[in-house]
Known about the structure:
single chain, alpha/beta, TIM Barrel, four-stranded parallel beta sheet, 48% helix
Amino acid sequence: MSIEQDLEARLASAPVVPLIGASDIGVAVQTANALSTGGLSIIEVVLRTDEAVDCMEAIVKQTSGLIVGAGTVLTVAQAEEVIARGAQFVVCPGLVDGVAEYCLKQNVPLYAGTMTAGEVQRAYALGLRTVKFFPASLAGGVPMLKALSSVFREMRFMPTGGVSASNLDEFLALPSVIACGGSWLTPAAAIDAGDYEVITNLAREAVEIAGAARP
Length: 215
Ligand code: 3PG
């Protein structure tokens, strides 16, 4: 099974991608394990700290059963680095042709951020068939996504940015949504307090919401 097929199969049963923003390897690994215990096995580690790539690599090496990707990837050099260090998928806030071309060439699934018809069309022209929709709530939320989905009929979307337990079901109700991403599953307060049970419970709640939205 290719990584893309594995990702799609897992997202079909638990269409939620939690974000981890960490600067400590131990914390990152514990957070990933807490999410996994709660039923989420696809993890995006965002490159927003100097230690993020080390944290991502540690999760890859020290956990099992997870698919780990890198998010907030801005440049081709970063895409090369994260893939070399074990990222199985790449997420960008926007669409950069060079990053898209590199990931396609490497056969690494890419979720590039889009928020307008022009960006989705450019992603389509580059050969992408799944994109991130970011920042989902500010970019028009569900109504905008419905409008984009009606014209880009082959495109699937991963709304991220402002998604939470309170609106997850609305996004998942759209057939074009492959999954939702978000940081609501890894609240800084719980991580700072070392309360990983909170994270496991948030993951379980998300899995339940998804199950009800897509029976
Ligand atoms: C992202 O990188 O995708 C967003 O910053 C996530 O947005 P959120 O924090 O609102 O979930």
